[in-house]
Structure prediction request, 499 residues.
Amino acid sequence: MGKNKFISIKTRFLYFSVYLTAGLIFSFLTTQIMMQYFVSCSNRILNNYEEFSEYWNELDELDQILFEYAQTPTSAGKKESKELLISIQRRTEILDSRIPDPFMRDLKIITEKYAESCENFLEKEQENVEKLVTEYQITEQYKNIMKSLYSNFYEALDSYLNEQMRFLESLRSHVNVVVILSEFGIVLYFLWHVKRLAKKITVPVQDLTDQAKEIIAGNSDIEMRYVQTVTDEIGILNNVFYQMVETNNRNFEQIKKQSDLEKNLAQTKLEYVNLQAKLDRIRLRLLQSRVNPHFMFNTLNIIAGLAVEEDAERTTKITVKTAKYLRYSLVSLDKTVKLKQEFDNIRDYIDIQKERFGERIRAQLELPGECEEALIPSMILQPLCENSLMHGMANLMRTTTVSITARTQGEKIVLCVEDDGLGMSQEVLEEVKERLRTAEDYDDTQGIGIVNTYQRLQMFFEKKVECAVESQPGVWTAVTFEMPFWKVSEKKDESIDCR
Prediction:
């Protein structure tokens, strides 16, 4: 595994489990092998004692059989004697091979001599009893020699076996020390490995926890550590947390900037609305202020013409009506008026026009009672009526009828000024409609006709006014305004002239 190779925590724990299991298995197997070895050595020592004891027991048994055979030779005795000879010879070979002592070698040699004499004894003729007895005595001599040396043989065996036991005990002690040290080393290694693995996991997690607590506490200036070389999931978690904090900081800054921007925008918008309201009021007053000179100039022209043509009585009459008309226009110009007042003023205006045009003008005014209290800006109907008289009846020798009507339509009121005069051509009608569509950007500097009136109504009723212009050349023209039905209680901020 490379030094910076990515190894998951699961894999690390798997490696640790494998190593721990292997260490435990190694320790267990080592202990078992050593125990088996010590048991084997102990059994071998006991087997040596057993071999030595069985040797002397079989030797005594063989001597008894040979004695009986010397008295009464039998084939069964001969066979059994030979089997015992083979057995005791094998036991001496075993003892000689296991115990490197001169007495064990002497025991083997004497046993071989003894076996040879026994063979000679058993091969003698059975009829010659004297020879059998002689040969038996020879075997007895070898047996007696071995019996006389028994204590030496036993001491040699005992000395050797005691030495082996001491060596075995010493070896056991050393092996136990080695096993204990090995197991202690294994335990230390795994404790170190566990501590290292725990440190590799818990320390970064604790750092992340401390950083998270700092962030929750509102400390955004903590130093985040980005892991360049990721070797496990903790590194990935650290970098993801680092990126999350960086993203949150950027988002917080953006939100803060956006909040400041929205506050500034709201303040600017409020200032703009206030400024726009002021500009609308100024524009409304400006548009209204352009009404007086225009109408006053026309009215005075009429009076001047009548003064030349008529006597003083007629001039007085028209002057009174003109004064009343001018008084309304001057006093109510920048105020809100009731629709009834506007209709009264338009009657005075038509009466003044009749003094000039006589029977060429006919007027029809319809104001239902439910419409009398409706609020509108002053001098709204007069410009529309003047357009009908000045443009509708121009160059016509017949009588021109001007109809001014009001009606309610749901929560709205509809005003209509209609005449049966010259009408408008299609080109002029389209031009007027285009001006109405662009009324907000249109500057009516050459007159105060339909567009001016529409602009004033739009500003007064907060752009809730609809205007329709219809005309047929040589037949009729109608201008209709649809606006909210406001009463005095709904427009308390405007003063009303009720005189």
